[in-house]
Each structure stands twice: as C-alpha cells, then as structure tokens.
Target: PPM-type phosphatase domain-containing protein
Amino acid sequence: MSADWFRRRFLPRGPLPAPRPPRPRASPVPYRRPRFLRGSGSSSGPTDASRRPDARPVRSPVRGRSLPWNAGYAEIINAEKSEFNEDQAACGKLCIRRCEFGVEEDQEWLTLCSEEFLTGHYWALFDGHGGPAAAILAANTLHSCLRRQLEAVVEGMVATQPPMHLSGRCICPSDPQFVEEKGIRTEDLVIGALESAFQECDEVIGRELEASGQVGGCTALVAMSLKGKLYVANAGDSRAILVRRDEVRPLSSEFTPETERQRIQQLAFIYPELLAGEFTRLEFPRRLKGDDLGQKVLFRDHHMSGWSYKCVEKSDLKYPLIHGQGRQARLLGTLAVSRGLGDHQLRVLDTNIQLKPFLLSVPQVTVLNMDQLEPQEEDVVVMATDGLWDVLSNEQVARLVRHFLPGNREDPHRFSELAKMLIRSTQGMDDSPIQEGQVSYDDVSVFVIPLHHQGQGHSSH
Amino acid sequence: MSADWFRRRFLPRGPLPAPRPPRPRASPVPYRRPRFLRGSGSSSGPTDASRRPDARPVRSPVRGRSLPWNAGYAEIINAEKSEFNEDQAACGKLCIRRCEFGVEEDQEWLTLCSEEFLTGHYWALFDGHGGPAAAILAANTLHSCLRRQLEAVVEGMVATQPPMHLSGRCICPSDPQFVEEKGIRTEDLVIGALESAFQECDEVIGRELEASGQVGGCTALVAMSLKGKLYVANAGDSRAILVRRDEVRPLSSEFTPETERQRIQQLAFIYPELLAGEFTRLEFPRRLKGDDLGQKVLFRDHHMSGWSYKCVEKSDLKYPLIHGQGRQARLLGTLAVSRGLGDHQLRVLDTNIQLKPFLLSVPQVTVLNMDQLEPQEEDVVVMATDGLWDVLSNEQVARLVRHFLPGNREDPHRFSELAKMLIRSTQGMDDSPIQEGQVSYDDVSVFVIPLHHQGQGHSSH
Model:
C-alpha cells in the first residue's frame, strides 16, 4: 500500500461517488460452524430451540476428536442478537515447506504440505460483525496466508540469526554484523510473517466479499506455536491470557476506538476530508449541545494524553469521531473495534463516509518463550472472544481454571470441558462468579491450550 | 495547529523556496549558565582550562544555596565537542494563581506570583544541539508557559474531579456523570497542562530564534511536584529514574529516531513529499549498495514490528530516513532525537528537506503518587541528560546512590555532592564503575531530588 493509493482510495477530489452496488459474480460464502465441531450437534444455521440462555447449547468437539496439543474448545451462539453465530474458529497443524509445491488446499484441517520442513500449530478465533461472511472467510484463509508468508522467509529462519540476504547468491558479503547490531532475531521474521499474513488475508477477504456481493468484517486472534515459541497475534477485541499456578499474564491487548483514540484522531487531523464535515475529531466527556456553545469544556485532541478545556465552537457540536465509553464506544457511530479484517465497503449509515481508512488489519504480536517458561502441569493459554471478557475478568477466569483442572486430571477431554464451563459461567450457570444481570448475550468462543509437555517436542528437520 | 497549516507549512506545491536568510530583529540570546550556579566558578563562556576530563570542572551550587526540596545539582561541560555547554537547567517554586495579575517575570528563580493559590516545585534539564540558544530560551521560558497553562485550568483542579464546564456560569447541567464515566482525574488536567506548555514553549522558541537570527533545538525533561504528586514530562533522550532501597523505576522513556521509528516512517509514508525523493523511509540492516539490487534483503516498513525480506529496487539505495544504531541513530542523517523544542529552521545539509515535521514537542508524562509511595529516608529521583546514561546504567546509578547517601547523612549539601560524584563517575574518576574507554565526552547535567518528607507538605489553599 502506498500513500498515493491511500489518497486515491479514500480521498476523492470531487463529490464522493455513491458506493458501488455490489455486483455478485461469485456465490455467497455459505454459513457453517468450524469443521472440528462436526458430529457435535446441528452445524448449519442457528438452532431451532429458543435462544433463552439456558436453552442455547454450548457446543464443543465430540469426545474422541482431539485438537492440536489436546486443546479444548467450546462456543455458544448469541441471544438473538443476530441470526447466525458470527464467531468462527480454526485450528490445525501448520506445515512449512522449504519450497513451494503448489499443493491444493482443499482441506480445512490444515494438513497443507507434502514435504514439511518446520511444523507448528495454529489456533484462531474470529469475531464477525455485519454478517458472518468475513469471519468464515478468515477462518478459511488466514492459515494459508500465514503458511505462505512463513514459507517466503523460512530459509532465514534456519540460522541462529536471519541473514541480511535471503538467498546465498548475493555477490556482496552478507554483513552479519549489521543484523547482529540491529538485534534481529528469528522470531522477528515470524512476527513479520504474522503481520504480513493478516494484511494478505484482509485483501483476500476484500476481494471475495466484493465478488460475492457480501459485506462484513471480523476481529482476528491467533496463537501459533513454532520452534519452541508461542506467538499470539491480535487485531480486535478478543483476548488471550496465560494462566499458571501463580501468574496471570495478558498475551494480547484490545484494539478499540478507545484504546486507539490517538491514532484515529491523528488520521482525522491529517485527512479532515475523511470526516466529510459530519464529525468532530475532538473528544469531549459527552456529545455537546447548543447550550454548551461559548462555554469552556473538557476536551482531548490527538496529541494529548491529558485533558484540557476549550471554548466550544459550532463545529464542536458535530457528532464525535469516537463516541461512548467502554463497551459502548463506537468509531464514527458505527464500529466497536479499530483493528480487524474486512469492512472494505463499510460506510456510516446514509453517508459516503468510509470506516476502512481508520481500521488497521495489522496485529500486535507477543511472544512466549516456551523453553524459558518451563510449563507446569496445569499451565494453559485461554483465548476467547469479547463475549467472555465482557463478564469475566482475567482473574476470575484464572480462578475458574485453577479450580477446575486439578479435579479433572483423568479426563482426556478436560480442556474442552473447561472451555464449556467457562462459557456456562458467562450465562450465569454453574455457580458462576459473575454478578447478577451480567450474563453475556453475545456469541462466545473459547480455546483452552495446555502448554505442559508441548514446548519441548517441536520438530525442526 | 491544523492539518491545513501543516500542509501549507511543510508541503509547498511548487519547487521548495530557499530557506529564508535569518533577518535578526532582536539581539541574540546571551550565553549563560543556570543562575543558581552563581558564585560557583566562571559562569560565562567555557573555561580557559584545557578540556581534558580531569581538568574540566564539575560545577554545582555554592554551599549554602539550597534548591527546592534541597535537591542537588551538578554539571560538566563537554570535552571540546562545542564551544559552550549546550545543557541548561532551571528549578524553582511554581506558584499558581487563581487569577491573572500580570506580574512581571523578571526573575529566573521562579517566584512568579503575588497571590498564590497552589504551590509546586519545578526542576528542568534541557540538552541543546546546534548551539546553546534553544536550551537557554527553554530554561528561561518553559516554567512561565507551564504556570500559564496550569492557571488556565486551576479552577478545574480544585474539585476531586474536574467539572465538565470550567466556569460555573453554564446554563446547562455540568454532567458530572460523564466526567466520572470517562475516569477524568485532576492529574489529567496537569498532564494536559504539561503537554500544552511544551507546545507553547516550542512556539515561543521558534519566534525568538527567528527574531534573533539564531538556530538550534533542545530536549526537555521536567519534574514538577503538585498536590502530592510528582509529574515527570520528557521530550528527548534525557532520563529520570526513581531510586529506592529495593527498587529502581524508570520515570521516563527516551524519544529517538530508533524508539519512534514507526511514527516517523508513517509520516513519510503519508507525506512522501517530505523526503523530496532523497531518502527512503524503509529500514534495512545497513545502507544498501548497488550490489544489493535485485537481492532479497531484510527490511521493515512503518506498519511492521517484525522484519521481512524484500527484493531491492533502485529507490531502496537512497539514504535511509533513519540511519545507524543506538547512539549513532540519526533522523535524516542529522538529528539524534525525535522530540524536543526548537529546530524550526533545521534542514538536511545542502537541501531544503526540513526536520521539524518529523519532530514532536509534546512530552510523555508519568505520575508518581507521593502519598502512596511513602518515601523513605534515601529515596531520590535522579534526572540527567544523555551524557550520564550513555556510560552508566540505571542499576549502576542506583548502586552509586545507595552507596553514597548512607555515609553522608550529616552533610546538608549531600545531594549536590552525590550529583557531582555521579558526574565524576562518567569521567572515569572516583572508582567509577564504567568500563575503560567508556568516559563521557558530552555535556552532563544531573539533578538529585530527595523525596523524603516532601510529599506530605504540599500546600493547597
């Protein structure tokens, strides 16, 4: 993406053209649940049962089907917020080949390679909005993008330190001292590959949705194991935490209009055209009214962490670029997340104002060094969409994990049972620690990934 | 500042105009050392003595002169890097009045007010470059800007929580629930005032330098006590740390072309015109050469935390926007810091390419709650320009502090003695812990601020 491209795409000189009516050239993305749920209940469309919390089924893989690392999974559909469960999930083995062989990728279960060179594992959650299509496309696609991006740099991942030049055919010396000085490590290539994969996947989704005349977007949270490290890449408001006996460690941050306020305000400062005169980029404690004109009120602009006062002018009465607090915060009155995939066609209702220029598809990546961690018997990573974290804190989830696991050591399916129990806790069942009236009406999806005995066995041929 | 202003100022449409030759209308800013050093040795111009490390004097206030909170101070001039000591310092009492009285500010020692309402203290270090003028102007000016910005919001600082409307004359309800929901606290107003003060000071310096036909810039590091809290605001590569018996806590981060790489690369992505076709915004492990053309080499762009490989094109051979590592990293081959005051006229040598659009004057502010901290006998904040931190780590400074203070409890001047000892340690004297050959040839300035018995005594009438 170049700056010129950005300007052409988002800053038309004349009056904005009407959004192109979608011209479907491909068939729409069919709704489905993750394939690893097959056999665990109805898998297409919502259940016929009433959507009362106690009637919505909590689904998880059938007993006997094991996910990578014996991870657990469970999900529940929302309470009639949308027709479909807009969450999606994917997991599988990730086989990185040294060369491209052009193998067809017709299986969702990620056995993507014929000649494997490096093997990893992959777990991903996608929380869709504006329809289920983007999340389904992401679940179908992101692992392939990731594999492709990793294969493009895999030669650089073999050495202790990535070489300055990828192929050994450079006629000039490869200058390892410069790579050394910059402190570039193998894991930086994996981080770069994750960043590129999210962007590539975003482009694929944009093309596919346009072709099929569909719309929508989704968040993406990925955990990937590779060469003794666990990489967690997040774009959106899902969350991953590490739970150990004596430690609860966040492995991701949430990206919302609130947490990315300064970045978003700054873009509106640089390109005021993006707001088409309909919004103010300034933040106030509440939306201003005519009565506030001429008064000094609290405000923040893009360069400010603190607050100050300004004299209210007429333009300050416009609808705010970011409005509302916490769960209610919305970007341009429309979207609750500021990073994710898709949303290429999303506009503010009844306007031509686009959301996409304010959204980032690039994830933040954190790295867990499994060798240094020396995972113990009941150390797990819990990944979940925002429906879980809206009603349970990290500490509450950690307490539930620590309470559940020791009593269920013999059950080979215990991590899915734990995931189911976590979801039931969001519905006010199972002696849930949540407060009265705080049940989750959202889609909720949870992976529980056990770390014990996993870090060591990484293969590297 | 508006986006239009930014574009007019930095993005001329036609060929760039030659930089205006400075037309001095005011007399140049006279060189001086901080006034609180009066009587402690020669105070104007460099010493006549040779600049060998052992011959350059370490200066500190004369015995008997006490700085706010009995803080210590010491400085040393560089080893012939420049004619003058480009570091500057200021400290004093900060009296915030409820109304503007227009009192003349003719004293550097900051007794700025007739009717005080809130009282704080202020310590500041400025590390100049391109001449001493900007740092001197900042030392003369920033406290006044800060006082003015605090006085503009002081009414909002009286209540437990700032009111939505500053004056009580609003005809609409002041909606405390919105301020409550946003979690806006009194300290956010102080942070906002610090942010505004740095920007106001930057504008003053720009005007003054243009009027006097001088050039230059400086970093700024400020510690300010107010209502039981210590605020540390930093723009540049100076550093403040808290040293306690069992803890060393950084109170600031450094802002350099390396630490702000993504912000700087992003601006060049948005406005490629700023590079005038002379620089590449991409980062490579080293500057590329003709031999690299067509090869796949390691690179990073603005959206990447990780690294990837790209096929080298001709435009990648240009000089990099950010070049060099660590201490040697330079923005546009010119500047080692990415935040600070001044530099309004600074251009890349022999070009019209301006540095200023890439620089921020806004500081990062951290807050130390003195009441919660319960400072002990030998808890201090050490503030110093980069000359100290280039050769001593936070831990080394902490060890020197902990070793020095207990043995010097009786000396009322011990914090200045400690500051002098820290500076001598950068010169390889006094059993210095630094490694052979690692002496500092830079200007070095140090404040040591004792915290014991200080948090409690804050006045608030």
User: Anything to note?
Assistant: The radius of gyration of chain B is 23 Å. The first strand of chain B starts at residue 72 and ends at 76. Chain B touches chain A through 58 residues (CB under 8 Å).
